[in-house]
Amino acid sequence: MHLVRLAVVACCVCFSGCANAIVRPAVSPSKPASDALLVLPGFGYSRAGEHALRSLGPSLAAEGIDLYVPTYVARSGLEQSRERLHRFLREHRLDRYERVHIFAFLAGGWTFNPLGETRILQNLASVVYDRSPYQERAPRVALEKLRFLTWLKYGPVVFDLARTPYVPLSGPGVKVGLLVETSPTSFIKRFAAAARGYGAYDFECDAFGQRYDDCFYVALSHDELYVRFAEVWPEVRSFIHTGQFSATANRTAPAGDAATLDGPPSGRREKSR
């Protein structure tokens, strides 16, 4: 029973392999819309997340945006995941669009950025990164606390995430936004002592090692963001169109260390820019 419980917990740290790719051009592939949105899911992606993203397809199509959500994460590791993503970009000819916009969940950023640095998408206009001081510790927790069970179910890709430093996107001409989660997942709550042991949490936008044009905070966990993506889509849309999130977006960082894992941090301070 103990192993069963650990296996269930291990499932919380990673994406579900049951979700399918979404390729939803608004018009004929020979005559695409002017814009494409490429969503790069990662840990926590499941059928429910797929449904949430797919449900946005009609509204995006009405705005002239084609939606693409690849299944690119490879069990064997980050290098193979990049090869899959590269192949997806070629096969679906995303270079046909005037502008490509990316929303990258955590594994998506780690996977795409080295490709982005090669200017693989010359028409890349904007990237919004999902970042989380909490969830970015989950791969390391899985490596150190649930190594065998994580490998058994998901392979070494989770360990690659734990060991690979973040490589920021630095290409000129691309607008970059940060969406920062301020709530922990159940996995991080369960292993709160281990996660907290890696050091102080820092929610400041400058702490993520990524240049950015704008940054805002959402009181959602990583798992919640997948199934409630429609709630943040208006801010993503604003960034796509203007290079800034809306005037009403929450730009106030959680205060101090935000050490409690019982819920969103209570104290707050204004984000410095």
Description:
With 273 residues, the protein is an alpha/beta fold. It has a single domain (2-270), classed as Rossmann fold, CATH 3.40.50. Helix content is 38%, strand content 17%. The protein contains twelve helices and nine strands. The protein has helices at 2-12, 47-54, 57-62, 78-91, 106-116, 138-145, 147-154, 157-163, 186-190, 192-196, 222-227, 229-242, and strands spanning 22-24, 35-40, 65-69, 99-104, 124-131, 175-181, 214-218, 252-254, 268-270. Strands 1-3-2-4-5-6-7 form a seven-stranded mixed sheet. Strands 8-9 form a two-stranded antiparallel sheet. The longest helix is centred in the first third of the chain and has 14 residues, at 78-91. The termini are far apart. The model is unreliable at 1-17 and 263-273 (pLDDT under 50).
Q: What's the gist of this structure?
A:
The chain has 273 residues and is an alpha/beta fold. The protein has 12 helices and 9 strands.
